[in-house]
């Protein structure tokens, strides 16, 4: 159910941003709001608190966004609170930002290596991923995991390209044991 709520509200905000021709502006505003919420987790506790009325929650949200977000983005967040869906707010935000990235052809990849990659290696990985995906740009999250021994593990969405030495050793071991 949570995914349906995230999608319904996130898609509504995305469609609104398209209709008003303000996709980038709304995305910037929503990113700022997401960062503020992440830096202040007690804010979500306040929005979910059962002893605080919806009207008080709406007032808090309006005060927080006053001068920081457009009327449409503020209206979206107020609508979420009025519907009692504030518990799903972060999922809605993530859905909206994902829709914006898809619209703008911006990919997201997780790259795991055995040791930290140099800037030149990162540039080569980014170039290759852009060629492979056809995206205009790509956001890459780099991680280090010495247990993969060498090579790279690249995850884009639900697709994984595992070219690590650990996987190659495991595959070879299985092949030897099965022969």
TrEMBL record:
What the entry lists under PANTHER family is as follows: ATP SYNTHASE DELTA CHAIN
Q: What's its membrane topology?
A: Peripheral membrane protein
Compartment(s) where it occurs, according to its Swiss-Prot or TrEMBL record? Cell membrane; Membrane
By sequence similarity, the record places it as follows:
Belongs to the ATPase delta chain family.
Coiled-coil residue windows: none
Task: Give one GO molecular function term.
Answer: proton-transporting ATP synthase activity, rotational mechanism
| Superkingdom assignment | Bacteria
Functional note: F(1)F(0) ATP synthase produces ATP from ADP in the presence of a proton or sodium gradient. F-type ATPases consist of two structural domains, F(1) containing the extramembraneous catalytic core and F(0) containing the membrane proton channel, linked together by a central stalk and a peripheral stalk. During catalysis, ATP synthesis in the catalytic domain of F(1) is coupled via a rotary mechanism of the central stalk subunits to proton translocation.
Q: Any idea which UniProt keywords this protein has?
A: ATP synthesis, Cell membrane, CF(1), Hydrogen ion transport, Hydrolase, Ion transport, Membrane, Transport
Protein known as? ATP synthase subunit delta
Alphabetized InterPro entries for the sequence: ATP_synth_OSCP/delta_N_sf (IPR026015), ATPase_OSCP/d_CS (IPR020781), ATPase_OSCP/dsu (IPR000711)
Pfam families noted in UniProt: OSCP
GO CC: one term?
Answer: proton-transporting ATP synthase complex
Q: Which organism is it from?
A: Coprococcus catus
């Amino acid at each position: 159910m949570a995914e349906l709520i995230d999608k319904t509200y996130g898609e509504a905000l995305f469609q609104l941003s398209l209709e008003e021709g303000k996709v980038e502006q709304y995305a910037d505003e929503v990113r700022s709001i997401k960062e503020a919420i992440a830096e202040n987790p007690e804010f979500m506790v306040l929005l979910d608190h059962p002893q605080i009325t919806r009207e008080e929650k709406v007032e808090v949200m309006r005060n927080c966004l006053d001068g920081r977000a457009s009327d449409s983005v503020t209206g979206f967040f107020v609508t979420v609170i009025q519907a009692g869906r504030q518990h799903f707010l972060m999922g809605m935000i993530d859905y909206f930002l994902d829709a914006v990235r898809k619209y703008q052809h911006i990919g997201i990849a997780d790259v795991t290596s055995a040791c930290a990659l140099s800037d030149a290696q990162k540039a080569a990985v980014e170039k290759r991923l852009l060629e492979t995906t056809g995206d205009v740009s790509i956001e890459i999250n780099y991680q280090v995991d010495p247990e993969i021994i060498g090579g790279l593990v690249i995850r884009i969405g639900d697709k994984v390209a595992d070219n690590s030495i650990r996987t190659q050793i495991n595959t070879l071991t299985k092949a030897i044991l099965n022969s």
